[in-house]
Amino acid sequence: MDAMTVFHAAHPFWVWLAVAAIILAVEVGTGSGWLLWPAASAGAVGLVSLVAPLGLPVEVALFAVLTIATTILGRRYLRPASASDGPDLNDPMLRLIGHEGEVLTGFVHGHGRVFIDGKDWAAVTRDGASPAAGQRVRVTAVEGAVLTVRAAPSGG
Questions:
Q1: Distance of alpha carbon 136 from alpha carbon 133, whole angstroms
Q2: 47 and 101 share a domain?
Q3: 80: DSSP letter
Q4: Which of 45, 77, 109 is at the close of a domain?
Q5: Global pTM value
Q6: Which residues pair with 146 in a beta bridge?
Q7: Rounded CA gap, 49 and 84, in Å?
Q8: d(CA 68, CA 100)
Q9: CB distance 66 to 38 below 8 Å
Q10: Domain containing residue 104: CATH number
């Protein structure tokens, strides 16, 4: 421990940089989001110690204060995107909502096939309509692998 104290006295910047790197590595491994702020705080203390070495007790206190402050501010002002912000990026089916396509085969009893974004999809209508082949339709919902469609507005 004495060697670490001597090393810190000679090179406080590198000690704090190592602490920041270790905390950041744990954050990357866990993905919790909670350790990002202590890692940034350790890096900031390292920069402060590079400019004006304050001594280990003051640096530890500064690290604690910065960690608490950045964690509170980060959680308050940098909220993660919620699931309700839009369709799931990893679900290409949900991204079809709002897209238009063409009916491939006329709908029978509300069921048919449509061509949207270069693919042939099974589709249903909920309003009882039976679009004819070649008619433009717009996707309104996705249920499993089946698209719910309605007639597209004229001119669009």
A1: 9
A2: no
A3: P
A4: 77
A5: 0.51
A6: 122, 143
A7: 43
A8: 50
A9: no
A10: 2.40.50.140
